[in-house]
TrEMBL record:
Catalyzes the 2-thiolation of uridine at the wobble position (U34) of tRNA, leading to the formation of s(2)U34. Residues 212-277 form the tRNA-specific 2-thiouridylase MnmA-like central domain. The keyword Cell inner membrane does not apply. It comes from Deinococcus lacus. This is tRNA-specific 2-thiouridylase MnmA. The active site is at 109 (nucleophile), 205 (cysteine persulfide intermediate). It catalyses: S-sulfanyl-L-cysteinyl-[protein] + uridine(34) in tRNA + AH2 + ATP = 2-thiouridine(34) in tRNA + L-cysteinyl-[protein] + A + AMP + diphosphate + H(+). The gene is mnmA.
């Protein structure tokens, strides 16, 4: 492989997590002749609890990222983002549960910390680009940079990037976006990179053990009624709306344990968990707030696809209304348990158009 002279390509800040994807990202950029600077964002606090930050963002991962940077032959910095992480990620995570919503901290982390703060840091370090190991394709159409779904459908990560500031798009690179995961591991093995066989991280990095225990520690249990959505009848008791999610049917604590019910609505103000039939959990519309659009609003198609959870297939929807404060969509077919606090991510085919935080669904509660 021919290497360009070091000075011919710009400097790139490569976000390294100590995982295989970002390790290969750094190696590929170096091959392509970029001047690569490796960096890892430190999120874990000094009093790191056991079982937290164990996979991606841990002291061990930082050691591995530094070692990989040495293997690839690039400088490495550990950047302190503890305060921003606490402010933008952990604090709002608890607050969302207090309001009866179901947050997605990984979306927040990518939006508020990685692609906002990191792009600023790259400028300070004299880097023209930021690169990450996300499975996302960076496509240029008529001089405009767009984010498209990664070529490996099982690994596509555009869902987490809807909040990327539009003006940052031209400055972000995704070298593994056109590869499949097994090939990425192969490249790492061929290079002898020590992260080649490192397993995936699945958990929320700052939550030790069970999510419910973590929530209980920050939001003490508070009893309330479980009510039937159609009649208002009290059918059970609960220990706090923060321990339930929309669409949940197991472990509800109903008086008649044989009854099958789904959580339809959470109301922390009255400490009420509303339950109903499966049909009561189907939404025809959604409303979203804090939107971010990756194109001009007047170019937003009137019909598009929306994805309401990371692991679900996008579904067709009609744009009822969209402006700078939010949008409302009507689904082509009713959708099950669309949870406030989660992301509604907008697509046109493989292209990421933006998204927003689900704030509500159209449903009347009994008096």
């Amino acid at each position: 492989m021919s290497h360009s002279p070091a000075s011919s390509k710009p400097r790139v800040l490569c976000a390294m997590s100590g995982g295989v994807d970002s390790s290969v990202t750094a190696a590929l950029l170096k091959d392509q002749g970029y001047q690569v600077v490796g960096a890892m964002m430190r999120f874990w606090p000094d009093d790191k609890r056991t079982d937290t930050f164990d996979s991606c963002c841990s002291p061990d991962a930082a050691y591995e990222a530094r070692r990989v940077a040495e293997q690839v032959g690039v400088p490495f910095y550990l950047l302190d983002y503890r305060e921003q992480f606490q402010r933008h990620i952990v604090g709002p995570f608890i607050e969302e549960y207090a309001q009866g919503r179901t947050p997605n901290p990984c979306v927040n982390c990518n939006t508020k910390v990685k692609f906002d703060e990191l792009v600023k840091k790259a400028r300070m370090l004299g880097c023209q680009y930021v690169a990450t190991g996300h499975y996302v394709r960076r496509v240029e159409v008529g001089g405009e940079v767009q984010f498209w779904r990664g070529d490996d459908p099982r690994k596509d990560q555009t869902y987490f990037l809807w909040g990327t500031p539009r003006e940052a798009l031209p400055y972000i690179l995704f070298p593994v976006g056109e590869l499949e995961k097994p090939r990425v591991r192969e490249i790492a093995a061929e290079r002898g990179l020590l992260t080649a066989q490192k397993p995936e991280s699945q958990n929320i990095c700052f939550v030790p053990g069970k999510l419910q225990d973590f929530v209980a520690e920050h939001l003490p249990p508070e009893q309330g009624d479980i009510r039937e959505i159609r009649s208002g009848e009290v059918v059970g008791r609960h220990l706090g709306t923060q321990f339930y999610t929309l669409g949940q049917k197991k472990g509800l604590g109903l008086f008649q344990t044989h009854r099958v019910r789904w959580v339809v609505h959470l109301d922390p103000a009255t400490q009420t968990v509303w339950v109903g039939d499966y049909e009561d959990c189907l939404w025809t519309r959604l409303r979203a707030e804090q939107p971010n659009y990756l194109l001009d609003l007047n170019d937003l198609p009137s019909t598009l696809e929306v994805q309401v959870r990371y692991r679900t297939t996008p579904v067709e929807a009609r744009v009822v209304h969209a402006d700078s404060s939010g949008f409302e969509l009507e689904f082509a077919e009713p959708q099950f348990a669309v949870a406030p606090g989660q992301s509604a991510v907008l697509y046109s085919g493989p292209r990421l158009l933006g998204g927003g935080l689900i704030s509500g669904h159209a449903r009347d509660l009994p008096a």
